[in-house]
């Protein structure tokens, strides 16, 4: 007599593979809006050319009064925010000041106020750019957490299914089925099913469509002469390098860190063409790991931009001691 053993859970494996192997379907309209567009930038796109950027500091002829009283970093920041002419005149007036010369005192006061105003405005500009980087980082992290939650939910269901199947198989083979052949068949099927569920948990990596037409990472990666995402003086600061000092630009240092820590890789296709990572395009399919990595890259960029405030503060302190 033949014994027919029905194992319905084996039929469910194909369904589980379909459920866990594809992209996440977004039904919530608010979440869809979050992954399609960003509201982190509240300003117009910057529109300038390379000619609008400050001239590199090492190409300028600076007066000895400036180089004697201010450090190279002070001068470079002053050049970035466009106050070198005012600084030169300010120092000249201070050196030629006489206690009874009221007109010169008023001129010095006006110059100092104008210089301080430009430094303060530059500081606000840095804060605005850094806040956009921080906002975009938070946006990415939220989507990554959403995707991770979906993966965790599926993993929990697979874990419960594996426990139930294991327990059912143990009970069935332990005494319910007396036929040895049928019992062995159930045991093998149960083992295969549990192994399949384990593999599904191991490869439970989903993807989600995430878009970013305004892409600061792309700006940094490409390093074009002008930027639509960064104001002129910030872009000058990120790209400035003095060939006589053999020091890379801040932008190049950021890229080198991305490469050295394995955050990006410049692989090639079969024809030897470089493959641009998904981070530098307008968007695409992201895994949780890639989203977390993108958020980290924005965090690093934000930190470098915020460090400009240290140079602005150092310049302001140096002026107080002139």
Automatic annotation (TrEMBL):
**Presence of keyword Transmembrane helix:** yes
* Species: Parapedobacter defluvii
Write down what this protein is called.
Uncharacterized protein
Organism superkingdom: Bacteria
Q: Where are the transmembrane segments?
A: 6-26, 158-177, 183-203
Keyword set includes Transmembrane: yes
Alphabetical UniProt keywords: Membrane, Transmembrane, Transmembrane helix
């Amino acid at each position: 007599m033949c014994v027919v053993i029905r194992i319905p859970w084996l039929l469910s494996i194909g369904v589980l593979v379909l459920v866990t192997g594809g992209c996440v379907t977004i039904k919530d309209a608010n979440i869809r809006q979050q992954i399609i567009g960003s509201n982190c930038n509240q300003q117009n796109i910057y529109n300038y050319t390379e000619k609008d950027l400050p001239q590199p500091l090492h190409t300028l002829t600076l007066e000895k009064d400036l180089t004697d009283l201010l450090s190279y970093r002070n001068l470079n920041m002053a050049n970035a925010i466009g106050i070198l002419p005012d600084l030169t005149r300010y120092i000249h007036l201070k050196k030629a000041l006489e206690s009874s010369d009221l007109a010169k005192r008023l001129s010095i006061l006006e110059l100092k106020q104008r210089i301080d105003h430009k430094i303060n405005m530059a500081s606000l500009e840095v804060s605005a750019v850094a806040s956009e980087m921080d906002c975009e980082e938070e946006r990415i992290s939220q989507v990554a957490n959403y995707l991770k939650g979906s993966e965790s939910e599926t993993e929990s269901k697979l874990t419960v299914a594996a426990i139930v199947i294991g327990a059912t198989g143990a009970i069935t083979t332990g005494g319910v089925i007396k036929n040895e052949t049928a019992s062995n068949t159930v045991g093998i099927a149960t083992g295969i099913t549990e192994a399949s569920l384990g593999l599904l948990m191991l490869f439970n990596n989903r993807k989600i469509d995430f878009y970013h037409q305004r892409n600061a990472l792309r700006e940094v990666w490409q390093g074009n002469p002008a930027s639509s995402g960064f104001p002129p003086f910030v872009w000058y600061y990120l790209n400035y390098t003095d060939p006589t000092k053999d020091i890379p630009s801040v932008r190049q240092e950021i890229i080198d860190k991305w490469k050295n820590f394995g955050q990006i890789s410049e692989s090639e296709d079969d024809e030897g063409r470089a493959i641009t990572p998904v981070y530098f395009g307008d968007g695409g399919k992201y895994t949780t790991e890639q989203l977390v990595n993108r958020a980290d890259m924005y965090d690093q960029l934000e930190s470098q931009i915020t460090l400009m405030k240290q140079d602005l503060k150092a310049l302001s302190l140096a002026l107080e001691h002139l």
